[in-house]
Amino acid sequence: MYVVTAAEMAEIDRMASRDYFVPSIVLMENAGLRVTESIRRYFGGRVAGKRVLIFAGKGNNGGDGLVVARHLHNEGAEVKVFLLARPEDLRGDPRTNLEIYQKMGGKIFPILEQSHLQRADISLLYADLVVDAIFGTGFKGAALGLTGEVIKLINNAGKPIVAVDLPSGLDADTGQVHGPCIKATWTVTFALPKRGLVLEPGATLAGELEVVDIGIPRRLIESRNLRLRLLTPAWCREQLKPRDPSSHKGNFGHVLVVGGSQGMVGAVALAALGALRAGAGLVTAAVPRSLQDVLAAKTTEVMTRGLPEMPGGVLSREALPYILELLEKCTVLAIGPGLSRDKTTVSLVLELLPQVRCPVVIDADALNALAEDRKYLREAEKEAVLTPHPGEMARLIETTTAQVQADRLGVATRAAQDWRVTVVLKGARTIIASPSGEAFINPTGNPGMATAGSGDVLTGVVAGLIAQGLPVPVAAALGAYIHGAAGDYAARTQGQQGLVAGDLLNYLPRVFRKLEARTEKTCLGKGLPL
Ligand SMILES: NC(=O)C1=CN([C@@H]2O[C@H](COP(=O)(O)OP(=O)(O)OC[C@H]3O[C@@H](n4cnc5c(N)ncnc54)[C@H](OP(=O)(O)O)[C@@H]3O)[C@@H](O)[C@H]2O)[C@@H](O)CC1
Ligand SMILES: Nc1ncnc2c1ncn2[C@@H]1O[C@H](COP(=O)(O)OP(=O)(O)O)[C@@H](O)[C@H]1O
Ligand SMILES: [K+]
């Protein structure tokens, strides 16, 4: 599902009218009707007698709200419209809908000064639902003054709120807020989700997100060459090919995981098992020699190799020829989990990466090694996935974590194009940016996953998917979705607090099964019960 900026949406709206002859008031009518339908569903099919307050701004978002008011009024709901503008300030479609609503006997209450807030406050006490039609994609900056007061009043009323297109006060392009913002129970957004609705904190402020069709021609949307998508189960299903009955493990690739250091062997185990759980045929884990037996004891299905090490149990430069030899038999390399930031290891990583001929997933301390010398990133021809959390990303581009978090999408897409790699910027709503300029936002995952080692599992899952032949950017996006979905499954079953990275390994198969179920039925004629 494509995700758009306010400007892209406005251009699509404009073209719908200008080039496809869809009158804008028809789009507004469709928008209002879709919100009315959603409200009717919310009330279990009947709105008669329900007390609904509609807060309308002076623009087209307000116009949508007036369409909603008209239809609810017609169906017998008790509707009050609080208009944050003088009627004479309304123009065009919003003005038309105001006049129709008033002609039908609909009630309008102005909110133009502090004293008007009193009436709104009292009405909120008795309301069954509040409709937020103050601002949509035309909002800029911060809601100050009276408008900010109204937003705070609505939020504090403790009543269910449906936001029209966007929660008012939200920046449609970044998902950030710079002042008061409606905290919606749910949001009905038109045609396509705006970026701010799928990036935090906007995703949380929007509540449940409903994307509705308002009659924008599909061909128009397809013609816009949009570059950002929200990952969906449907898209993930498309990437998963059913397994041919005569497959053997060689068909599913061989992952080499290189990592580990004294005290950090678990990270390698999590990554190696993550690769197997993602469906890789074979996985070899190469660690400092003194850790090999421990690792073998922890990971039955994983083949292990001991590598030359320094005192203190970190990989030494002598490990390089061993790793290159192992790579001759492998499809993909995953490097970094538990490596340590020891300077010998750093120089090993910097010497090894330019010689790697297969796709590589670079995580954790291998990323930190690249932060010390970006030559490989700038110059080498490579098929690589970087999986930084915001802190690692900040080190890589020499900025602060806060600056990375303030523009996650921009940071990830710029890095992907500058370095010609796929960047997986982890965190709430992971961003996956490919060298081609395409990017994905991952909606799965939860704070229960903010626990040591969950990133190592993701590294393994992505490597495991590449091992099975998926294109690198697709494997990264699919891996992030499935990894987060496993975390959501685990959190639903056992809560977020007690979730540990190892739990993700146990839930990965159930996520794959949910995704494969459709294809299995179609492909093999039989199939597991859903
Ligand atoms: N055909 C279409 O286009 C369709 C559009 N649709 C709907 O239109 C919505 C976009 O409508 P929009 O562009 O009129 O802007 P909207 O969000 O209503 O803002 C209203 C006014 O708020 C003002 N304002 C801005 N920032 C402010 C601030 N910080 N503090 C105070 N005021 C501020 C600003 O006033 P100005 O700055 O111009 O004086 C602006 O004019 C879209 O979200 C969807 O719901 C659907 O019906 C589908 C068809
Ligand atoms: N609040 C959150 N919401 C969703 N996913 C999260 C959240 N916090 C962390 N995660 C996910 O958990 C994983 C954390 O990875 P990382 O920070 O590398 O942990 P570690 O380095 O300990 O393995 C990432 O996949 C990240 O997207
Ligand atoms: K709104």
From TrEMBL:
Residues 232-515 form the YjeF C-terminal domain. It catalyses: (6S)-NADHX + ADP = AMP + phosphate + NADH + H(+); (6S)-NADPHX + ADP = AMP + phosphate + NADPH + H(+); (6R)-NADHX = (6S)-NADHX; (6R)-NADPHX = (6S)-NADPHX. PROSITE patterns: YJEF_C_2, YJEF_C_3, YJEF_N. (6S)-NADPHX binds at residues 60-64, 136-142, 165, 267, 338, 389, 456. AMP binds at residues 426-430, 455. Its EC number is 4.2.1.136, 5.1.99.6. Homotetramer. NCBIfam families: yjeF_cterm (TIGR00196), yjeF_nterm (TIGR00197). This is Bifunctional NAD(P)H-hydrate repair enzyme. It comes from Thermanaeromonas toyohensis ToBE. The lineage of its organism: Bacteria, Bacillati, Bacillota, Clostridia, Neomoorellales. The gene is nnrD.
